[in-house]
Fold:
Amino acid sequence: MATEHIDVRYVAGLARLELSEEETSVFQRQLDAILGHVESLSALDVAGIEPTSYPAPVYDVMREDVPGASLPREAVLRNAPDQAQDQIRVPKVIADA
Structure:
């Protein structure tokens, strides 16, 4: 299978990017190298290998939810950057209409 060729100028045009001749040349070489690596990966025999999301096992690192094991309110409020009326104040995130 021949390596696919992706035209950097065409992709830059789609993204509305203006690239100089030097940038186009550098990015074209980099993109061709990436596609070459992908082609070499496609030659690997992966029959019998189960697909995974992570290369190493990921375990749940959360503690068990034990009633009454939460931090006291004072400890949480002591670390809050801003507080009022025993509550944590946060910046407004909704713009006025």
